[in-house]
Protein: B box-type domain-containing protein
Amino acid sequence: MSRRKRKALRQKTTAGICDVCGREMPLCYRCQKCGYLICQECMAAGPRKFSCNTVTWVCPNCLNWETL
Ligand SMILES: [Zn+2]
Ligand SMILES: [Zn+2]
Structure:
């Protein structure tokens, strides 16, 4: 159902609908592998949940490690 935006593939951050909270956010981190989006708020709210630290986070969808 969800369509991915190809043009944003190279970007690590993009505007879009957060896959965690479902809200449209101006800045989301994107998984380069599956296109999963997580907004800054969710990232900040769940550092343990998403296993992120200052430089990396784990995509909860495909478990791919992404650098910030
Ligand atoms: Zn969110
Ligand atoms: Zn992913």
Summary: Residues 31, 33-34, 36, 59, 61-62, 64 surround zinc ion (ligand 2) (CB under 6 Å). Residues 6-67 form one domain. The chain has a mean pLDDT of 81. The chain has one helix and five strands.
